[in-house]
Amino acid sequence: MTHSIVLLPGDGIGPEVVSAAKQVLDAVAERFGFRLAYVEHLIGGIAIDEAGDPLPDSTIDACRASDAVLLGAVGGPRWDDPKARHRPEQGLLGLRRGLGLYANLRPVRPYPSLAAASPLKADRLVGVDMLFVRELTGGIYFGQPRFTEDTRDGGRRAVDTCEYTDHEIRRIVRLAFSLAEKRRGKLTSVDKANVLATSRLWRKVVDEVAVDFQGVVREHRLVDSTAMRLVTHPNDFDVVVTENMFGDILSDEAAVFVGSLGLLPSASLGDAGPGVYEPIHGSAPDIAGEGIANPIGTILSVAMMLRHSLDREDAARAIEAAVRRVIEGGARTHDLGGELGTQAMTDRVLAALETP
Ligand code: IPM
Ligand code: MG
Asked: Which of 120, 123, 271, 340 supports an S-S bond with 344, CB 3.0-4.6 Å?
């Protein structure tokens, strides 16, 4: 059986980390005996340059027809002109929305040997293992209306709208509860219910869904104090479910446990159709093309792809074990104060896969 994969390298270091992760995919396909067929398409800034659109129709059509999508990164200073008609990020947001990928999973589990790379005290990090479940297709990222306009007094005004329906909340919260059930049985729902109407609806729906998950302990927390509690008591968290923008912010904050944004993977899933897998880091234009980007976030995203879209738990675990061994064995890319470049780090992972 052949799985069809769309590669969307995108901008900055995207092509380098996607090429690294593809080598790892090929290696596990060979070892576990399945076939992969790849097609590459444009997204982001390079798609604006070459096709005049950050998400060309040919790209989204190919994604819809695929089993899974591997994405590098989008964006960069070249496309930062505030007057430009298109932004690279619109490509990513359009892809998420267009494929109905409402659930973004971001696991965070520090490596003991990297404790010194985190600014947090090492004893705080022992046992930390959390999963962010971020709502990905609603909230202030997509609310209408949104605009900037000139006002009559000669000033300007900008509007973004935050909107959630109970349906949008229920499906992500349900998924988060079912994931918590399979983990340590704790779900933290993060909101700003003391201020926002969307958050009060969010809380209500969480309580309704909780009735079906008696084995899961749930708690509600406000986002501001959660931002603090995450770093003071990271062990309090198992599964964290939250709306789009809070999830964006808190999951970057959680990267401090691991020591580098370059290590963290993500999966974006809908009810049906292909998932999109991407590292949580950005396009890192400052180091693009130098061959020094950390490929691990993307390699681990491929493991999530194997697990969630291709039904290859065996291959997913093999990759995760190989990465863990390589890191615990001392392999370090530049972001972690080491010397290894992208390909050298990838070669370590490939070697570890060969000697399980
Ligand atoms: C992320 C990124 C994106 C987001 C940007 C690039 C639009 O920060 O995936 O976390 O805000 O969702
Ligand atoms: Mg982000």
From this structure: 340
What domains are there in the chain, each with its CATH number? 1-109+264-356 (3.40.718.10), 133-248 (3.40.50.2300)
DSSP per-residue string spanning 137-171: SSGGGTEEEEEEEE-TTS-EEEEEE----HHHHHH
Tell the residue number behind the tokens 């059930």, with chain if given: 181
Residue type, 164: Y
Handedness of CA 21, 24, 29, 32 (dihedral sign): negative
- How is residue 94 written in tokens? 């359009």
- Residue 144 to residue 160: CA distance in whole angstroms: 7
Of all protein residues, whose CA lies closest to atom 6 belonging to ligand 1?
Answer: 89
> Measured between alpha carbons, how far apart are the two ends of the chain, in Å?
24
> Which residue among the candidates 61, 80, 166, 224 is catalytic per the annotation?
224
pLDDT at 44: 98
Task: Tell me the whole-structure pTM to 2 decimals.
Answer: 0.96
Kindly report, residue by residue over 207-249, the tens digit of the pLDDT.
999 999 999 999 999 999 999 999 999 999 999 999 999 999 9
